[in-house]
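Entry for the shared binder. Reason: the reviewer on the internal report wants the predicted structure included alongside the sequence.
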Amino acid sequence: MGYNIILWDKPVWEQLLPFTYTRPAGAIRAGILTIAEKYEKLLPCQVSHLTKGHLQKKYPVQYGDDNLLVNAGILPNIEFIAILKGLNVGESLWQGETFLAARLNSQSVKNEEGINSNKKEYQGEINIIDRIWKIFSCAKNEIPSDFQILTQGRTSQPIPAHCFAKNPENIFIEEGAIIEFASLNASEGPIYIGKGAEVMEGALIRGPFALGEHSTVKMGAKIYGGTAIGPHCKVGGEISNAIFFGYANKGHDGFVGNAVIGEWCNLGADSNNSNLKNNYEEVKVWGYAQKSFVKTGLQFCGLFMGDHSKCGINTMFNTGTVVGVSANIFGGGFPRNFIPSYSWGGAGGFTTYQFQKAMDTAEKVMDRRHIELSEADRDILKWVFDAEQG
């Protein structure tokens, strides 16, 4: 039986800004896979997104006669999937005051009716990405979980003899991947190397780690566990417990840790983020929903960079810095630790990055990967500009 899964943004969308400005919550990479991809792998199902109006052209919702409406931030596991399958039409699933899922007909989904009817309490363990720092915090568990989903019953390409590999049974190399004289230590978690990816010579990698298809780890890189690099990225220097969504570059020396980097971002050479305050106190980050800085409960928390943002060489990001969409940051000193979308400047102050200039840059960047900036993408980015700068 196939299922029509609709991932509902409303419970988490605002809390996951700036990343949800340009994608539904279910399209966030949480481990090797996005949240939507996890459902597609665990269930025979169609997945779509019930999201904000400006995203619907690119991410249209698909209604069926029988739908499972699911909180888009939930990271599915086998137990949760089993409970979902057992829901009857008209029943909803909650954990305390948190909505988890409901089985509804198309009209009820469209009208957001039936969410509170025939409530069942979920007693199992559930992980929900409902704050931006949970994206990297979940990685050490989600990478091994996704690794199991992707590799079960399959055979890895052989590990090259010239590489050092510890716990080779915990390393999976997809077809067409190239690994040159690298160290792969999977003793603390699995290592997954995607199709057509490349690990250059001298790279030191500890699991759990994932490298997306056609991505590159450059020479001499030092990468620690809990790091997932999405497709078509280039990374180098030192990286620890960071998620790169895809099509982003950190190609040179410099440190990025406890961080989330959106698509089409570029970090200039020797750029660094702090992930620990000098006084070792809890890190606060900007909360879009609260319009203020909020506690994370974390001692280690680094950089959050929205899609299409860039920074120049030697940029220094303070602990817990949040950067919006299409920001251009450069110059000496520490810029402030909340940088709104379409900001242009640095520690000396910011002006507005004019929309058309930002789009000119986006087109050039995407063209290098032979991808066109679509009308839908341009409309989304214009909506963000108007929302924050208009």
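Summary line for the report: The chain has a mean pLDDT of 96.
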